[in-house]
Write a structure and sequence with these properties.
This protein has 398 residues and is mostly beta strands. It contains 2 helices and 28 strands. A hairpin with a 3-residue loop joins β7 and β8. It starts with a strand and ends in a 25-residue tail after the last helix. Belongs to the homogentisate dioxygenase family.
Length: 398
């Protein structure tokens, strides 16, 4: 994160003796990115964070993935997926994936196991419900509209505090953070940024859980392992630094608007390796006297565009079957834009009440089994007015 925090008890100087009440040393742990060359934090444990007593391979459910062939826009109805008993980690249903990112959906009704993603950062978006995200750094209470950023290798678990918790999860193969153009050279949010430090929530007081022989599921670069720790990893008495889990509400994103329609980069919220995450929020819209407030037809030749519809009314998609929880995928190689009639209907509008999360990737997204199981197969033909029917028969040209 771009700014420094200190929580709990820490010594005045780093890497110096810091003793427990019985005279023994606290165990200092440095968590740092990019080989000691980027953001880091120092945590102080009651017990050795290195003490494991068992390690066993774990095989999660396997999902096949297929290329988007034939190439066409897709509409996924996540609320049609099986919403049976699941947790927010092992119950994720992968939808879209490439070598940089995996996008999944989960409906959780029980606490997850302790979990460490050693492959990359995670961004969890809360569609509905509430939860407590417990971490080695402390606890975050989250609710509908919250993004939760969990840095690589932070041990955590997600505990629903409502009957059902609906999450969209974005798992990177590197680090996720604010776009560099929003930050000063020293990491402060600049004046033109649509959010700032006041909108960011970090973990509270460390939990100090005492327990032994504690299982932690680890996703790493060669698969999954289940470690058993001699002591509970939530034994941190204090920490300080710039690296920690944090939450930010989409409702605190301040939209950037203009006289004519603004391009999607004004909605950018985070960046990851070869992808960006954007937030479309309720806002005043274009105020030129001849403005057309909905997007123009556009073809991002370098990226696939995934849009998760999470509230309000998305004017540009009216008549396409898009609903709460829908995901649209508009791939590179396809020109996409508003549904027929949307530009005309939007003329004169001064406000859009819409809420959506967009992930643009710079490598093509494959589809996983759960995505195909909830696909609205008529979506691709809706621009031609054939959303409920079948495409016309075509004869390949020679």
């Amino acid at each position: 994160m771009p700014y420094y925090r200190s929580v709990g008890e820490v010594p005045r100087k780093r890497h110096t003796q810091f003793r427990q009440p019985d005279g023994s040393l606290y165990a200092e742990e440095l968590m740092g990115q990019e080989g000691f060359s980027s953001d880091s934090s120092l945590l102080y444990h009651r017990h050795l964070p290195t003490a494991i007593v068992a390690a066993q391979e774990y095989d999660p459910p396997a999902w096949t993935r297929v290329a988007n062939r034939p190439l066409k826009p897709r509409h996924l109805r996540t609320h049609k997926l099986d919403a049976g008993g699941a947790d927010a980690v092992l119950g994720r249903q992968p939808l879209l994936v490439n070598d940089d990112v995996r996008i999944s959906y989960v409906v959780a009704d029980r606490p997850s196991p302790l979990y460490r993603n050693a492959v990359g950062d995670e961004c969890l978006y809360v569609e509905s419900g509430t939860a407590r995200v417990e971490t080695t750094f402390g606890t975050l209470d989250v609710a509908s509209g919250d993004y939760v950023l969990v840095p690589t290798s932070v041990i955590h678990r997600v505990v629903p505090t409502s009957d059902l918790l609906r999450l969209l999860t974005v798992e990177a193969t590197g680090h996720i953070g604010p776009p560099k153009r929003y930050l000063s050279v020293r990491g402060q949010f600049l004046e033109h940024s649509p959010y700032c430090e006041r909108d960011v929530r970090g973990p509270g007081t460390p939990q100090l859980v005492e327990d032994s022989d504690v299982e932690v599921y680890v996703r790493h670069r060669r698969g999954w392992t289940r470690h058993v720790y001699a002591h509970h990893p939530f034994d941190v008495v204090g920490w300080d630094g710039h690296l920690y889990p944090w939450a930010f509400s989409i409702h605190d994103f301040e939209p950037i608007t203009g006289r004519v329609h603004q391009p999607p980069p004004v909605h950018q919220t985070f960046q990851g390796p070869n992808f960006v995450i954007c937030s479309f929020v309720p806002r005043k819209v274009d105020y030129h006297p001849l403005a057309i407030p909905v997007p123009y037809n556009h073809h991002n030749v370098d990226s696939d565009e995934m849009l998760f519809y999470t509230g309000g009314n998305y004017e540009a998609r009216r008549g396409s079957g898009i609903e709460q929880g829908s995901i649209s995928l508009h791939p590179a190689g396809f020109t996409h834009g508003p549904q027929p009639g949307a530009p005309e209907r939007a003329i004169g509008a001064d406000y859009f009440d819409e809420l959506a999360v967009m992930v643009d990737t710079f490598r093509p997204l494959d589809l996983c089994e759960p995505a195909l199981s909830c696909e609205d197969t008529g979506y691709a033909w809706t621009w031609a007015g054939r959303g409920k029917g079948q495409p016309s028969a075509v004869t390949p040209s020679g």
